[in-house]
Amino acid sequence: MDVKITRRIPASVETVYRAWTDPAQIAKWQGGRLIAEIAVDGLWFWGHKSDSGKEIPHYGRYVALEKNARIVTTWVSPSTHGDESRLEITLAEKDGATELVLEHTNLPDDEGGRGHERGWTFFLGRIAEVVAK
Fold it and tell me: Which residue segment(s) compose the domain that 92 sits in?
């Protein structure tokens, strides 16, 4: 299954791109533990704590980085059952703000896969909060 979310963020494309590609900025909206080599073919790991305090691992590889326009990574987590999914973020200036389109594809069609829509909706809200400051 696939998830697609479009969100208008009241910040410049440059600011929103930096929120996705600068580890210090990522930490502000994502929380948890992040290890990232932000470059094409660079690897990333993100571990966030579950409600029970257990770290949940997420990891992948940067596939494409087009400054201020597009970010593509692979995405593997327990909710993908260890299978690789694809996350693509596109950014465009629109009326003085950024239109962000998030597409997360090749997710399993089950509760874990469907949970990504709720998760991404939450995190896009966090990004909007962080870049507004």
Answer: 3-30+64-132
